[in-house]
Amino acid sequence: MAKNKDFICVGALAGAHGVKGEVRVRSFTLVPEDCFAYGPLLDEKGKVALEPETARPAKNHFVVEAAGNRTREDWEALKGTKLYVPRDVLPEPEEDEFYYDDLLGLRVTHMDGRPLGKVKSVQNFGADDLLELVAPDGRTAYFLPFTKAVVPVVRLAEKELLAEPDEQYLPESMQRPDTASDD
């Protein structure tokens, strides 16, 4: 999919819940309930994918009763569909806050000038945010913590992040020779 800068991804369909036509939704917003605060949720083309009528929290998702008559099978077929809202309905990010979508595709350069790759995704497995990078070789993927200490400079206008990670975070082939591990 070509990235549409008019939309921000706020969640994803996680499959059916029960047999009464409810659907599970994973929220990607800082405050999880905010996923439902901006109106109908759209698919990547801008078409309404979900109009929540009720949403109740579950373990790591929400159980949503939606407008319309979708069946369990319908929701299962849509599992994995990303949910978007128009950018203009969202608040502007605070200083040093970023929408994940704005980081995707940015090139990452080490403070010493070495190219480190491009941002493929932003993940959070329960601790801090992690940038998933594709190395300059185009084959190797690895993670860098997205913290001020590791990524001190974010230049959205220049489509670049400047990073100063410990060498251990880098794939061995990208580490400076004097710091590569002896393992």
Describe the protein in words.
The chain has 183 residues and is mainly β. It has 2 helices and 13 strands, in the order ββββββαβαββββββ. It has helices at residues 72-77, 100-103, and strands at 7-17, 22-27, 41-42, 48-50, 52-57, 62-66, 82-86, 107-110, 115-124, 129-134, 141-145, 153-155, 160-163. The strands form 3 sheets. It has a 6-stranded mixed β-sheet with strand order 11-10-9-8-13-12. Strand 3 and strand 4 (48-50) form a beta hairpin.
Structural key phrases:
2 helices; six-stranded mixed sheet; 5% helix; mainly beta; five-stranded antiparallel sheet; 183 residues
Topology, pairings included?
Blueprint: E1 7-17, E2 22-27, E3 41-42, E4 48-50, E5 52-57, E6 62-66, H1 72-77, E7 82-86, H2 100-103, E8 107-110, E9 115-124, E10 129-134, E11 141-145, E12 153-155, E13 160-163
Parallel strand pairs: 8-13
Antiparallel strand pairs: 1-2, 1-7, 2-6, 3-4, 5-6, 8-9, 9-10, 10-11, 12-13
The quaternary structure here is single chain
Global Rg: 19 Å
Low-confidence stretches: none
Topology as H/E string? EEEEEEHEHEEEEEE
Structural class label: mainly beta
